[in-house]
Structures are given as structure tokens and as C-alpha cells.
Amino acid sequence: MAGKLVVCGVGLIGGSFAMAVKSALAGRHPRIVGMGRTRAPLEQAFQLGAIDAIETDWANALKGADLVLLGMPVGQMEGAMRAMAPYLEPRTVVTDGGSTKADVVAAARAAFGNQVCRFVPGHPIAGAEKSGVGAAKADLYVGKRVVLTPLPENRPEDVAAVRKVWELCGAKVSQLAPEEHDRVFAAVSHLPHLLAFALVHDLAGRDNADQLFGFAASGFRDFTRIASSHPEMWRDICIANRKALLGELDAYMAELLKTRVLLAGADGAGLEAVFATARTRRDAWLDTLDK
To answer: What is the architecture, at CATH level 2, of domain 180-289?
Structure first.
């Protein structure tokens, strides 16, 4: 990390990563170069001090690079990987911040070929409903979980290097297999986002939408907070992980049907039992977050 760090996609995830590295390493941080689809976010990232330079082609960006973070939506990963592959140097390690992993690993294998050993997949669990480098902050990853899903081909020292840089950002690093990662996050991340988007979309399409939103308060705000997330990014996540997500959606629909039966039958005891179990489990989970 003494030399050069390249961040491709300087939004919330990439911008915060760059800021966190700068903050952690103070005056001895590597030179941080930004890449991206459009110039305006790169200029903003430079003005905010998140990056030290802007590059517009991979040949220059990757010259002497120690580490590359791919911070774009998962649907753009393979294109970026194919573009950068011819210019990878033997010293360069590549990682990503994508919310799905099996598809990103497949894209890496297709794009990098026998160089896939230098790609260490990762997923920082630190998103927010706001996107763009304007929402980035140096402490975004402090105390947050980052999941690495290493490949059999990865060198242990490369996995250790990626782990170390996330730890420098303040993150708690765990490891999962790519397929296991996608099953877990279909349930606890991708499904909640899908439900929040669907509920707001439903209400927004009603004739009395203005009235409904006019009376909505903190409960609705809290439940639907993540419906303010980046539509393109979540489109790509849902499509990429649709098999696992469909399974979770089907399970949730079955749970809703059971709850509907209780409600239709005015089964107060049954509803209370469901609510009590949910509250107890959620409170126990919240207690773990405080430790």
C-alpha cells in the first residue's frame, strides 16, 4: 500500500474506501487514483479530497498499482474487468465491493482467465440509502462487517492484504463461500430492499397517494428507508441474485399467507405469538450489535 491504489467507481462505497485509507494512513497513504464511467463524479471526488488524481484509461491507471477496488454496480463489473485485464501488472491485486458474489466471480473468471488468482472478491456491509461520492465519509466502515469470498486460486498473502486494508478502514472482516454469501444476503439484505421498493411503489400508484404519504410517519419512514437506495445498483443486485432471492420471496409470501389466515380469523393469540417471537429474536439481534 506504499505505492498506488486505484478506485474504479468513486461513489458511496469507493469514495468512502478512498477516504478511509487516507484517514487511516494519514501522510503515508498511497497515491489514490480514481476511474469511472463519467467525469463529473471523478471531479467531485477530487475536489472533496477523496482521490489524488483522475485517470481515463486503464493503461495509465494500472501502471504501478498495488490494489484496485471495483466499486461500480455488479452489472458493470465484467465490462470493467475485461477492459483492465490486458494492463494488469504482476504486483496488482484486485478486489470489489459488489453485493453479490457468485456472478462477480463468474465475471472475473471470464475476464481475467488465468489471472483470476489476483482477484479477491469482497462485500462491505456498510451501504446507505444515499448514493454518490457526496454521501461518502471516512468512517463509513468503522465497526461494520466486510465479507471476503476468496477463490481457491488466491494466494494467501493477497487475501491477507485485502483483509488488512479493510481492517485499516475500521471494518470487521469475515469469510464466506460466494454461493453461501448470496444465500445469506438474499434473506437479510436483498429481500428487505425488494419489499421496501415494492411497498412504496404500490402506494405511489394509488389514486390517494398524496393523502397516504401525507399521513405517513416514523414507522413508514423506518420501514421504507432503504427504498431511497440507488435504483440501478439494486436492479443489478436483484437480477444477479434472482434465484436465491426468488426462494426468499416465496418463503416470505408463504409467511404472509399464514399471517393473513390469522388476521382473517381474528386469531389474536396467534398474531400475538408471531409478533412476540419476532420481537424477541430482533431484540436479541440488536443486543449483538452493541457488543
So the answer is: Orthogonal Bundle (1.10)
Q: How far apart are CA 43 and CA 252, in angstroms?
A: 43
Amino acid at 70: L
Q: What DSSP designation does 152 have?
A: T
Go through the chain and tell me how many residues it has.
Answer: 291
Q: Are strands 119-120 and 145-148 parallel, antiparallel or unpaired?
A: unpaired
Cell numbers given for 69: 477496488
Express as a percent the part of the chain with pLDDT over 70.
97
pLDDT band at 107 (very low <50, low <70, confident <90, very high): very high
Note the pLDDT tens digit of each residue in 137-187: 999 999 999 999 999 999 999 999 999 999 999 999 999 999 999 999 999
Q: Where are the domains of the chain?
A: 4-176, 180-289
C-alpha cell at 44: 467531485
**Counting beta carbons within 10 angstroms of the beta carbon of residue 278, is it exposed (0 to 12), middle (13 to 18) or buried (19 or more)?**
exposed
**CA distances (Å), 231 to each of 87, 99, 162, 168, 238, in order?**
31, 14, 28, 30, 10
Q: Does domain 4-176 have CATH number 3.40.50.720?
A: yes
